[in-house]
Amino acid sequence: MAGGGDSTRAIFFALGANFAIAVAKGVAAFFTGSSAMLAETVHSLADCGNQLLLLLGMRQAKAPPSPDYPLGYGKAIYFWSFLVAVMLFTVGGMFSLYEGIHKLQHPEPLQQWWWAAGVLVFGIIAESVSMRACLQEVNKARGNRSLWQWFRESRQAELVVIFGEDLAALLGLVFALVAVLLAVYTGNALWDAIGTIAIGALLIVVAVFVAIEVKAMLIGQSVDPARQQQMREFLESRPEIARVISLITLQLGNEVLVSVQAQMREEHGVIGLIDQINAVERALKQSFPEVKWSFFEPDRKLLA
To answer: Least crowded by CB within 10 Å, which of 236, 259, 270, 304?
Structure first.
């Protein structure tokens, strides 16, 4: 949407990084027997699938309106984003917890730990590149807001998901590296299990926060507060409008529906009123390209 970050760029960066990391982690997990590394391998593979789902959702969201879906398919991206959050919770978080608890009960010594450390360092570098690309797009969208405020107010579900995934992946890699090094330094394989459990808990927390935000979009949210305030100020500055009585917006993927009730400044009969409304709607869509549907209702008193 206008003023938003390029979600596609962030997704492709994440997909490339996670695929390379998954291959490297898989090789290292085979040679070292590290459960933390195995958990991270599954996490990276799940992330690859998640990013493909997001690309699918973005493609479906661009389908034109139809008789059955008169407002288009924009909200399809919310469905796929919510599904990704569920997969992050189950495939990533719950599997990691299971693996960590299993290793806690049956600890196994690490073998050739330098494989794990090397791959994790490579993974941290690759994931940092992906996170940097994601943050560049997030910064375009958040303006002067904090990251937390943007996360709560953003209506770009796919960018919210990628940010959450990248953050969890980067922190998970750090957890895994610390766990492996502690296990080697102390000679206690329980640190590996603890690292795996920490990764699982991290993924579950991130998945829950992402799911809460995407659920709100699925139900039907307005545009983010800052953008809605810009629309209100724009309408109130129009010479045709004396007062904005009501402004209702609905975010539909990357497109927006706007409903306006306003008191017009001058009355020139029905034809003149229609011309005023048309002029305002044209200007609104030019200034806010994401607005695809607009419904304008003049103050009823003017029509009495």
So the answer is: 304
